[in-house]
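Lay summary. Proteins are chains of building blocks that fold into shapes, and those shapes determine what they do. In this project we predict the shape from the chain. Here is one chain we studied, written as its sequence of building blocks.
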Amino acid sequence: MTELRRTVLLTGASGVVGQAILREAPGRPVRIISMARPGGTALPPGTDEVLGADLAQPRFGLDEDSYAALARDVDTVIHSAGLTEWGLPGERYKPVNVDGTRRVIDFAERVGATVHFMSTAFVAALFTDAPYQLSDTNVTTNYVRSKLRSEQMLRDSGIRHTVFRPTNLIGDSATGWTSRGQIVQLMSDWICRGRAPFIPVHQGNRIDIVPQDLLAKAVLRAVELGDDEGSFWVTYGDEAMDMERAVEVCAKHASALGRTLGSIPVTDPDALDPEELLRLPPLARSYLSVLRDVSEVTRCSGGVLPTSMPELRTRYGIPHVQDTDAYLRTLEYASAHLS
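And here is the predicted shape, written in a compact code that computers can read:
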């Protein structure tokens, strides 16, 4: 398909995914209008067109003339805006994750734009054919439901769209850079400091994390090619490391910092004694509970997340990056810049 210069509305431009996309965009045949709420996180240097707007408001909070002008400009939407914090009540995700997606759909219908939607690989845990049922109390459940609902809305709308389903994101594959620390960096730092008494992981689970620039490269290439259908799992699947290998990377990083990371048992989450958890410090209880819940998500997805990585490499030119190498770079960047 012929590559044309696209005018892209990027929602969530100040978020981790949005900033990764902006960093990858220079030199590509795209013009990006970055939507970000006024007063939010600063965008990368060189970001030219910034639209102060709010996805939770009708017409993105714009007046009618500004909304109409935006509609005349845009032919593609990268929809990366969303509330990504876990553990919130279901209604907290509705204004942006669900209603915001409805507003993106309405905008795309008006202008005939293709939408590239950033979902999550965790939706696999809620599929009807999942081998196990995800518990309502899982810290990710309400967030994942909001993403699955948005996917369904896009399908029902009939607009041209793609869906990208990344697993937990880590830093840039070459430098470890990220615009802000996320759950992987926080928990890894805790582990690298020798504070994890054990790590709860179901047997056979892969620890699937993906560098944020790989997602950004794939999305931008889909825009360049004019792709307007398909669902892509931005994961490592059966190439992903296991927990023992992840701990080895943590030990290597700890050693470089002058620390010795002792042996950390890997424990079946279903065998955890609630009383034992209650005796641990609050931070340890919190982190272990999240690790347990993430393990449950992976278990409900079959232990190994679905993956489109081979297709992403061939169609979109995504580079082969060893996940353990990228993970180590993420830890190195985080310890130097995010601590």
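What the prediction tells us: The longest strand covers residues 30-36.
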